[in-house]
């Protein structure tokens, strides 16, 4: 992965153990918001990613590239692939049971991804330092051990739930997340 210093964890940054209440190994993670473009089940044209954590520390999901995801004829659009990486990385930091947003997302495109391809996505955390989480993901063609088509590195920033109240619609999230309080 060609990674900038901004997405490289500083020395000593370690991923914490999942807190009580975090998804257990083997658990499906579900959607964090029904209208999310990445995982929302109610989104009419979204990616509809469904993820699970095999070990409580990493996240896996599959994304099949469809006609709606084209950039060049019969090839996936790079921005759509970046959205899939953003989503699976977001799910991996959700394992820590705190709200984070993407601050920076870096993507390497290594192979073209034809329509009809199933990408096997995997994301994990390389470390947390203060409010900053350093994360990484890869997308492999056709199988969990297939050739790597996309790699991503990201810096996610921890926010309070007030972030969503101030800038978005906290009530819509709270309706689906009784486990997140505005003033815990
Ligand atoms: C997404 C919905 C979540 C719903 C939450 C509800 C429940 C959670 C449940 C489930 C979640 C599960 C899955 C989520 C899956 C996918 C989600 C996809 C994620 C997204 O798609 S989310 C949308 C795109 N995202 C944004 O919409 C962010 C817009 N942005 C801002 O809202 C501010 O920009 C913010 C808050 C990022 C920072 O603002 P701020 O004022 O709080 O903090 P500040 O600026 O001081 O930064 C603190 C330290 O981070 C460094 N830093 C900041 N930004 C940086 C950058 N870009 N590059 C390098 N370093 C950066 C600073 O340099 C400083 O570092 P230092 O402390 O060392 O000085």
UniProtKB/TrEMBL annotation:
It is found in: Cell projection, Ruffle membrane; Cytoplasm; Membrane. Transmembrane segments: none annotated. Residues 8-23 have a biased composition (Pro residues). The keyword DNA-binding does not apply. It is a peripheral membrane protein. The keyword Membrane applies. InterPro entries: HotDog_dom_sf, THEM4/THEM5_acyl-CoA_thioest, Thioestr_dom. Its EC number is 3.1.2.2. Residues 1-25 are annotated as: Disordered. It comes from the Bacteria. Residues 76-140 form the Thioesterase domain. Belongs to the THEM4/THEM5 thioesterase family. This is Acyl-coenzyme A thioesterase THEM4. It comes from Nonomuraea coxensis DSM 45129. The lineage of its organism: Bacteria, Bacillati, Actinomycetota, Actinomycetes, Streptosporangiales.
